[in-house]
Amino acid sequence: xxxxxxxxxxxxxxxxxxxxxxxxxxxxxxxxxxxxxxxxxxxxxxxxxxxxxxxxxxxxxxxxxxxxxxxxxxxxxxxxxxxxxxxxxxxxxxxxxxxxxxxxxxxxxxxxxxxxxxxxxxxxxxxxxxxxxxxxxxxxxxxxxxxxxxxxxxxxxxxxxx
Length: 162
Fold this sequence. Notes:
Spore_coat_CotF-like, Spore coat protein, globular, 0% strand, Ferritin-like, capsid protein
């Protein structure tokens, strides 16, 4: 018996991936928009501008899917900047863990593999600390999918409007 996809909403796992990609791209967009005015090298400035345009397009394409989530958003005040910086750090830790995990599977030299393993463990510890920091301060409603997705939409729209 095959199961047909429910066209009335996204699946839970794809909703979570939608959240992760939207949150990551939103954080990058805010950071790039905050930085571009400091980039003096013209070719690098042009690359930043291109990245900003691409991410804005990505977010515009992703935002309509939030209305299809199985459940159902932040100007940059001091508390919002804190949330942004914490999210940026969480994203760094998460990316580091994934990068080290991939590198470990490609490493043949035992001492290098051990070094990667040790560094990945530090990244995992950092991720845990940052996650707990955000959770305790209400910056990452990890257990409230509706609020999590509403924050994604609000943050992406704010980044698009910067």
